[in-house]
Amino acid sequence: MDMNKLLTPLDDNEKVKNFYQNFIKTFVTPAFGAISKTEVDNLVFGLLIDAGALDPKSQVYEIARDLNVTPAKARNLLFQWQLRSMGNGDVLKKDLIEALSSVRFVKDGDLLSFGVESPLLREELRSRLKHLQIYADASFSSEIIRISVDHFVEFLDDFLGDIGKKKIQQALIKDNQIEDNSYKAAACRILKGIAEKAAGEAGGELTDLLGKAVSGLVEDNAVSVIEIYKRVTSTSTKA
C-alpha cells in the first residue's frame, strides 16, 4: 500500500474538509454506523477518488496495489463507483467509443479478441451485445471480449449514429473503395479483409491496422478508414 499516495492529496485543507463532511454526512444517515461495511468501503473509495488520491482510469491492478486489496475487490469497488457516478447513457456511449478507439484487437481463430479495462464499460458492451442476441465468448477470461467480425460489425451498425455511418459509407464510395452498398457490408469487408491478412507473415502490423480501422469506424474518421483499406488492398495485391 502506498500510504503517501493516499495521504498527500489530503494536505489540501479544502480536500480534507470535503472528505470529512461527506464522510460524516453519509456515515450518520439514517443513524450513526447504520450503513454496512461494504457501503463504508464504497464511500471511502469514492472520497479518495474525489480527493485525487486514486485515479479511476488507472489499471485495476494498480488500484489494488494502492489499497493493498485483491484485484477482484478493487474491480468491484471501481464498478460500484462507476455505477453511481458515470452518468447517463450518452456519457457511457461516449466513453465506450473512446475505449473501443484505444483497445488492441487480435485475430483469435475466427474471432476478434480485445480487452476493455473498465468494468462498467465492459458490462455496457456485453449488455448491448446481448440486446442483439450476441453472446461474447468468455471461456478464456471474463475481461476479454471474443466475438466474430460479423457480430462486431452488427454491434457497430446498431451502436453508431446514422450520420456517422453515412459519412463513412459515402467517403468510401467517393474514393472508389467500395460499391454503393450498406455501411454494414462495407465495414464487414474492411475488417474481415484485415483480420484474414493478420494471420499471415505481416500479422503484427495488420493487427495494429485492425485496431486503427475500428477506431476510424467508431470515430467517424473516413480518411483513416480509407487509408487503411488501401494499405490492406496493397498488401493483398503484393501477396
Order of helices and strands: HHHHHHEEHEHHHHH
**Strand residue content:** 5-15%
| Outline type | elongated
* Main sheet summary: 3 strands, antiparallel
The oligomerization state is single chain
Strand order of the largest sheet: 1-2-3
Report the end-to-end length measured between terminal Cα atoms: 53 Å
Overall radius of gyration = 22 Å
Based on the model shown, name its key terms:
239 residues, three-stranded antiparallel β-sheet, 12 helices, 3 strands
Describe this structure in words.
- This protein has 239 residues and is mostly helical.
- 65% of the residues lie in helices and 5% in strands.
- The protein has twelve helices and three strands, in the order H-H-H-H-H-H-E-E-H-E-H-H-H-H-H.
- It has helices at residues 3-7, 13-27, 37-51, 60-67, 71-85, 89-100, 119-131, 149-159, 162-174, 183-197, 203-218, 222-238; strands at 106-108, 111-115, 144-148.
- It has a three-stranded antiparallel sheet with strand order 1-2-3.
- A hairpin with a 2-residue loop joins strand 1 and strand 2 (111-115).
- Helix 3 (37-51) packs across helix 5 and helix 6 (89-100) crosses helix 7 (119-131).
- The radius of gyration is 22 Å and the shape is elongated.
- The relative contact order is 0.08.
- The model has no long low-confidence stretch (mean pLDDT 79).
